[in-house]
UniProtKB/TrEMBL annotation:
PROSITE patterns: ABC_TRANSPORTER_1 (PS00211), ABC_TRANSPORTER_2 (PS50893). It comes from Gilliamella intestini. This is Nickel transport system ATP-binding protein. Residues 5-253 form the ABC transporter domain. GO terms for molecular function: ATP binding; ATP hydrolysis activity. Keywords: ATP-binding, Nucleotide-binding, Transport. Belongs to the ABC transporter superfamily. The keyword Transport applies. GO terms for biological process: transmembrane transport. InterPro entries: AAA+_ATPase, ABC_transp_ATP-bind, ABC_transporter-like_ATP-bd, ABC_transporter-like_CS, P-loop_NTPase.
Length: 259
């Protein structure tokens, strides 16, 4: 079976800001990144701050265009014009770190969750209500949350709403960009456990971008170590994590093992 997601020699650079128009230099942020992700796999991408993780996420989600190289989703080249109108795009979803910025503060929970449903699916009001309740239940919340506004919820509850929205149209692939990093440790654990359950129940293919290796060991089958815009090491079976070779991967591993 072909990979669901494939990156082929992807490069991205940005003009350095505030250097004056003539002296502006390009800095390379993503440097020749290639990897494949197969259906129902969960890939962890770990890298330090500024290593280019969010830029990589934006490239995968189509929010940025690569300077060179290609990104294929289900065999479809996402740089092609036809991709924009393709219904396969609906199979891609995302959850971001900043749950407050990810929602409209004037929307109720039901309106937030229904955003993708209202765009992509024509269903009756009754069906829509039932679907929202079922999504609330899937993320561990009950009907009492239906009419709440974002400011009436905790960070963990609001992130659950963002997860409900992300799965509302049954995507095949979800990218989580530091999705638990801003939550308290105990809430992080609850959300990670929810994500592990959803991954199994919905047969999802996922990428989990984080700076925390513990999160990756909890959820992921494979891991990419990302350093200064490059893949420095890839472990295809998480049970072989202890065999990493690159100094950066070793340093991260030692930090969680408490050497
Ligand atoms: N639109 C942009 N224009 C110019 N430079 C950018 C742009 N987006 C990102 N960068 C630069 O690219 C580099 C990588 O940024 P990115 O946000 O991808 O890193 P990151 O690994 O996600 O960091 P963090 O974990 O701190 O969010 C940084 O030096 C950043 O300043």
């Amino acid at each position: 079976m072909p990979p669901l997601l494939q990156l082929d020699h992807v490069k991205k650079s940005f003009l350095q800001p505030n250097q004056g128009l003539l002296g502006r230099k390009k800095i390379s942020v993503i440097n020749d990144v290639s990897f494949s992700l197969y259906q129902e796999q969960c890939l962890g991408i770990i890298g330090e701050s500024g290593s280019g993780k969010s830029t990589l996420a934006k490239l995968i989600l189509g929010l940025e265009k690569p300077d060179s190289g290609n990104i294929y989703f289900n065999g479809f080249d996402t740089s092609q014009r036809a991709w924009r109108k393709s219904s396969i795009r609906r199979d891609i979803s995302a959850v971001f770190q900043d749950y407050n910025a990810s929602v409209n503060p004037y929307f109720t929970t039901a309106e937030i969750i229904a955003e993708p449903i209202d765009i992509y699916q024509k269903i009756s009001t009754k069906e829509r209500q039932k679907r929202i309740d079922s999504l609330l239940e899937q993320v561990g919340l009950d009907h009492s949350f239906y009419h709440r506004f974002p400011h009436e919820m905790s960070g963990g509850q609001l992130q659950r709403i963002c997860i409900a929205r992300a799965i509302a149209c049954s995507p095949k692939f979800i990218l989580f960009d530091e999705a638990v990093s801003s939550l308290d440790i105990s809430v992080q654990t609850q959300i990670l456990s929810l994500l592990a359950d959803l991954q199994k129940q919905l047969n999802l293919t996922t990428i989990f971008i984080t700076h925390d290796l513990t999160t990756i060991t909890y959820l992921c089958d494979k891991v990419i170590f990302f350093y200064q815009g490059q893949i420095v090491e890839q472990v295809d079976n998480i049970s072989q994590l202890s065999q990493v070779n690159h100094p950066y991967s070793k340093q991260l591993l030692e930090s969680i093992l408490g050497f």
